[in-house]
Amino acid sequence: MLSRRSVRIKVMQLLYMLNRDEQLTFNDLVKQYNDGIWKTYEIYIFQLYILLKVAQYAEKDATNRASKLLPTEQDKQFTPRLYDNPSTKSLANHVGFLNLVQKYKSGENLDEDHIRTLYLAFAATYEYTDYLSLPQPDEEQHTKILLELYRFLQAHDLFIEMTEDRYNSWQDDESLVSGAIKKTLKAMPLSGPFYEEHAPSDETVRDFGEQLLRKTCQEDVTLLGMIDPMLKNWDSDRVAILDMVMLKMALCELLYFPTIPVKVTLNEFVEISKLYSTDKSKEFINGILDRLMKKLTKEGKIKEVGKMEVVKD
Q: Do residues 188 and 140 make contact, with C-beta atoms less than 8 angstroms apart?
């Protein structure tokens, strides 16, 4: 689930914290890094579980409709098929998934009223009523309604609030988690350890992310010494802290991660600067990294590459 960009962002945020808090140690950073990486995975499990609980509320809805003194024709025809179908049941009865729910305490302190509110709001949508009107929904239609349910939840303030209350990194991880859950839903009915595909891998987390964090910290003085001459008339003390962190990380990749293409490193940090720094950061970082790349190439410290292609908006 975790891309190298998301790992870079987490490393960048930790290095920024280190700059702002002198009491932090490198061991503190590594612990926070690994905790943060696994929190992304926890969000995936948590949101998948919330989706399951909302779907399961269809059974409560069926019970409430059946207990009415004067049920409508719609009440009489209602079935809890949002939950009672092979796709949803494959998640509800998946022992491995439920063990992870227990491990990460995804169901702990869940407010049943919140689940009810989300279900009733979704029940009022055209997509849900249209699904209920189908005579015999097939596997594709069950998958489609679950995808619609997740899209609905993503746009609902209460669902966002429930996630943010538990995970303050949600905004940084939103696209990753969303993509992983949609991929899981499209694979329904589920079998086997489907969730392992989205767990942090050793290659991404340790071989790249943790080493990038470690090397950028270890070589901080050296990296600054190489960046400083590239600033021309701009004092390094006046460079935005986040911009300097990104420059050091990018330079670290250029020097110590030879398997990553140079253009990938350069364009990745330009993109990240657009998301997290000032309006002028993109041009500034692009310019400094371009000078560094040319200098390092001339000195034989990195392989010859073509002219850098700036990422367009």
A: no
